[in-house]
User: Fold these one by one.
Assistant:
Number 1:
Amino acid sequence: MLLATISLNYFKLYYGYYSMGDTDVLAILLSDGHILYGRPFDDSQINRDVSSSPLFMEHLKSSTSGTATFYSAVDHVERIYGYTRLKRYPIVIAAGYNKTQVFSNWKVDSTIYTAIVLTLLLIMSSMGAIVLKQIKINEKNQLDLTKVRDQLTAMNHTLETLALLDGLTGLANRRQFDIFLRETIAQSALSGKRIALIMLDVDMFKKYNDHYGHVEGDKCLQTVSHALSSMPRRKEDLIARYGGEEFVIILMDVTEEGAVAFAERALEAIRHQRIPHELTTLDEKVVTASAGVYLFVGTTPAQAPESVIIRADKALYQAKSKGRNRVEIATE
């Protein structure tokens, strides 16, 4: 047996080079929530169990890395954290910056930057009077400004697109779905065309996650998302990730038969991926999904999007209770 140890002084010396505030935190933790090293806390915090903190109870369950804001389980200070779980070792690294201090520094920096910008604007205005006399130089500057404007416009479009996409699956995210559903209800009220809302949930996904791990769980959701996004559909229809293992589909101007047929094709597309699932109660032992369908026409005043979602979710619950891997239609 070979046993290797690392002195805590190594971590203190190594991480002591990082420039951080007095109330900022840099911590190394085991995956079960025990502290291995925490700066700036003293050695009495070593081996303390913080598994009940939001980092372990919420954020690491949904993503192996990311950012989040929550109160520390050690000193109850609200911080903005960046965290990641190592792939090869049962280690979690977390760095947290005091939220109050961060915003305080931001305000100071903003004041300085504003002053600089105003100064630059004043200088540019003065120079503009000279530049206007030089036609050729002015034409070149105008061309440069046009290019910058186009670049900023392209960047803004990119940022807007990213804000409406789910980071894991690449599908439309919950925000885009909420916006689209409200707009769709309003359009339906004007046109009288029928809308179908399909709520789809991966069967026994918690068992899948517990058995195969969160990394494989993420891969499973990505495969399911690819199967759904690859389905032929009209450009006015929307497929989005609602949250967790739930997905939503909005079909415009559709019959009941058409909506049910689309939902059935979606379930078949997921089954066709043949993702192994040893703990499912279904005979095929592959990942499957259930779907609930609700058809409606928008009204004036418009019905609340939540009421539409509730009815589709009720149909989904019926599909689950009747054995899963099936489609159920909501009844009024």
Number 2:
Amino acid sequence: MSRNRTERHANCPHAATWRPLAASRPTMSPAWRGWVATRDSLTARLIAAGAGRVFRVRLLDQRLGKPRLDEARALGLPLDRLAWLREVALCLDERPWVVARSVAPLAQLRGQRLERLGERSLGSWLFRQPGLERSPIEVTTARPPFHPVAGPWGRRSVFRHGRFAVLVQEFFLEEMADELGLPSR
């Protein structure tokens, strides 16, 4: 990979700086830690918190493309490799509470049929996989690079199931914070 290409991606104004969840302890409120640190299904937690509201996954984009530098590094991929990219909004009563971006190496997608998820959550598939492993959670306070609305926290981790790996990045939005009465951080 050329030095200029690396610098261009590394200096991208929308590139998130990710750090281990433990490093956020002094700045993250206990209320947010309860959401960000959970290792179970975020979809299930949102549905429970919605108290009867209609939950929906809104598909924003799904395509083959090259991952960003930080995404390729998280997956251990060369930057020039194609990946399956999917961006969704997790909504309650049509209001986005979370936006998410998933990145899976194209070479590992055979037979997974993730392109058929449509407006179903990736978590509904992931958490049914036997032997699913999840990397430690990393966090950021950066704006989602694929969505215009910011929020207080973003988190990401890599899920592995056999040879399959997918990076899942979830950004909690202000709408969620307002609805649940969560502090700004």
Number 3:
Amino acid sequence: MASLRFDFDAYPYLTADLPGIEGSIRVRPADFQVFEVPAYAPAGEGEHLFLRVEKEGLTTRRVVELIAQRLGVEEGQIGVAGLKDKHALAQQYLSLPARFEPRLKLLEDLPGVRILGWARHPHKLRLGHLAGNRFRILIRGAREPGRVEAVLRQLAERGVPNYYGPQRFGLGGQNPEKGYALVTGQKLHLSPWLRKFLVSSLQSLLFNDWLALRLRLGLFDRVVEGDVAKKHDTGGEFWVEEPERESQRALRFEISATGPLYGRKYREARGEARALEDQVLRRYGLERAHFVARRGDRRPIRVPLADWAVEAGPEGVWVSFFLPRGAYATAVLREVMKRNPELEEGWAEV
């Protein structure tokens, strides 16, 4: 059976023909800046309060804990749209019951956290309630911005490989091994949240392997018979019955193939596309039936890269871009640097 440990360096690059750039990231948290883009603006009235928060050197989960302790609110009443990296300077939105608005002054001296503003809204924030994230990242020591521009230009034309990043897999990339133990019936005494996260890590590894297989076969911006394709303009999905015609749409970046996050309720691929998915499962001795405890979903093989820019500075090269929700900046940086940019950091959220 193939190794279940995540190894980003084992995956192929879309821009393998373009040289990488030397340098380091995350030397300081402010080198890695993330700005959450909300899916909608707060209405200005309602029973919940949306906070725009800036954090540095803290996970989103830790910020929620600190706010809950300081205000005396239950953690479950605090909503978040996305989870942001600890080793970053990040701005994001949280929500809490509006009745706590008079106590917000208690957050003024919260270590590592600044409240930048707030407004009312009728509903609590939920995970996924964001359009995406804008990134501004310093590659320290880099001196060849032209190389970065060449890579980003190709990614903008063909799409960013939608790999899950190292954050998903834990220290040493070991989370999928624990997820495998859970789906194959081994007994581990873990909380429901952690069990769900570990199985999700295994699903993510299988997706990454599927994406890598498609890249190696030249099927990154093509579709085959039986693929579940996604329309980029509407988000709709459909089965591919005429691959030659639909591949022309894929080349124009109108549609993309989607890969499986196995579960009991998701649109399953057919024919040739299903055979590729089965090939990945067989590497680990797994079947779709092992994932019946999860709902399942599909994830696009690529995402668009928008609003990108490159700026040379005295400390290195700044790279800026926008990615839709669920996409990882690491997938862009590894193409630029031609290595796993987090490898030397040895960090993970969980």
